[in-house]
Amino acid sequence: EQVQCRHFRACVSCPGMGRSYTKQLTAKHERVLEMVREATELGEVQFLSPVGSPRQTGYRNHAKLVFRHRRNRETHDQELILGVYKPGTHSVMPAESCIVHHRRLQPLLRSLLEEVEALEIPIYDERTGEGALRYALARTSDHTSLTHLTLVSATDKIAKLNTLILRMQHRHRELESVFLCVNAETGNNLLTSDIRQIKGPPALREKFGDLVLESRAGAFLQANTEIASRIYTTAAKWLDVWAADGVIDLYCGVGALGLSSINHNTRLLGIEASEAAIECAQANARRLKRHRAEFVAAPAENVLEIAKAKGFQKPSALIVNPPRKGLSQEAGEAIVELAPRKILYVSCEPETLVRDLRGFAREGWATRRVRVYDMLPQTPHVEVMALLEKTTAPIGLDSDD
Predict the structure, then answer these.
(1) Per-residue pLDDT reduced to its tens digit, 137-175
(2) Pairing of strands 211-216, 365-373
(3) Integer CA distances (angstroms), 153 to 63, 181, 201, in order
(4) Were 177 and a residue from 148, 152, 270, 307 both cysteine, which residue would form a disulfide, CB within 3.0 to 4.6 Å?
(5) Which of 148, 125, 146 is nearest to 138 (CA)?
(6) CB 255 within 8 Å of CB 206
């Protein structure tokens, strides 16, 4: 297939570009299917058909790009680029016109690059530690048609910052809010807790199915709104919780999975390390009138003591949506002790998912069903959701079995 992206070939973030979408989706599905089947201790797993993205380009509702000066190969002049890291390196590849970014983000990012260059705003140099601007994070909402921009800088003293913001808002009326994150730390961590509100309201609202959720600059939200909506709707059906049930949502983010899975009378306890995300989750619960939902900012490993303190010793269901590394040993042991009847596991890394499913199998949880969701078309990444049910006592297999 013909590729429309101007960054294709030079950028390696989308290796599926140019390949038919049907083949991409099938390959992701079969890769996860093979991994699950190899884990024979999981038993008879119902493997449902994969869910593809309605949009294969223009689907990504947020962008995270790096400012970098480099020498133009043709003119040998210094040029400013806004791009992504080449995997495993500190080299930056241009990506300001990336076609998987939402159609509102592409012109916004191009304008940002032009204005920063025109105003000659100092760019951070990781070799010398001098300069200011490091990263740009942009988000947009289909529900409101608005965008938010976060600039990450090594210092809060940025020449012509106000002029930059005024120019950007003049060129892009949809730009509702601008934030400044001060990050002087070495390394590639994009954000710190020092996020300052410069213009506009603090949170962006997006609609997932019937659920309107807000998220702040430092809070995680799924990149593909349409696929996330499908996950949240299916999660509620799979869990099928009742008013008398108690649900724990671990790594809860802004509360999306938990709040979509409960009714007004169901108790929900959400736990998440990010304080910004917890503030959003609390606001989302209030707006949705989920009065029996409460959220705590804490590491996932603290779930046992928090659950006991809140009266969740025997939750009916537990939702877990960990980062790529999956569950830590401490978090896994705490879940086993909590002994929920059902576990809903949403994962962005099939290898750690299968590892954790095998661990739960040893403790008496059967993996009932698995489904692949293509959150990020054109990339090798895939989202997987699994439903587990408690069936037996631990079978005591060694960790190497």
Answers:
(1) 999 999 999 999 999 999 999 999 999 999 999 999 999
(2) unpaired
(3) 16, 6, 21
(4) 148
(5) 148
(6) no
